[in-house]
Amino acid sequence: MEESETETTTAAKEPDDGRYHVGETANIDGLEIIYAASGIYYEDNMFSQPDEGYQYIFMKFIVNNNGSRDQNISYFDFNGFADGYSVDNYYGGNDELSATLSSGRSAAGYIYFKVPVDAEDIEAEYTVNILSKEKIYFMYD
Fold first, then answer.
1. Residue ranges of E strands in 8-84
2. pLDDT tens per residue, the chain (141 residues)?
3. 80 CB neighbour count, 10 Å cutoff
4. Backbone angles phi, psi at 26, to 5 degrees
């Protein structure tokens, strides 16, 4: 696997508008989601290449459970959009984000999407609360 990665080492911060960029942290009911990196994912397998005009991208997250109860997080919890249109998740990448974390535990992993090469606005939508339908967005940088 080859990756072209954008990463930051700045202090974690949380935006006011629910749109997170690399280096920012979402805090949700004791679950800390750090958006650690993003970039283009290059698949080595010649049979798993994206369609012409598309590319695979990745977003890397570090997740800490600072709450008192078990928390789940998975790449299935994220929906991808490119220029406002739904895009497909790509499930062929390495180290996909998926964990059940007890209090004080952490995990790191990736989510992947297949997006048009010329897409200008790519985001991963995460549903914070199923009942209230509150969502936050991780912007591809």
1. 19-20, 25-28, 31-42, 54-65, 71-74, 78-82
2. 445 554 443 444 556 678 999 999 999 989 999 999 999 999 998 999 999 999 999 999 999 999 999 999 999 999 999 999 999 999 988 899 999 999 999 999 999 999 999 999 999 999 887 777 889 999 998
3. 23
4. -100, 130
Handedness of CA 119, 51, 136, 134 (dihedral sign): positive
pTM (predicted TM-score): 0.86
Q: Please give the single-letter amino acid code of residue 109.
A: G
Q: Which residue type does 69 have? A: R
Residues 6+ apart with CB under 8 A from 1: 41, 42, 43, 44, 93, 94
Structure tokens belonging to residue 66: 């600072």
Q: Are 124 and 114 in contact (CB under 8 A)?
A: no
DSSP 86-116: EEEE---SSSB-EEEE-TT-EEEEEEEEEEE
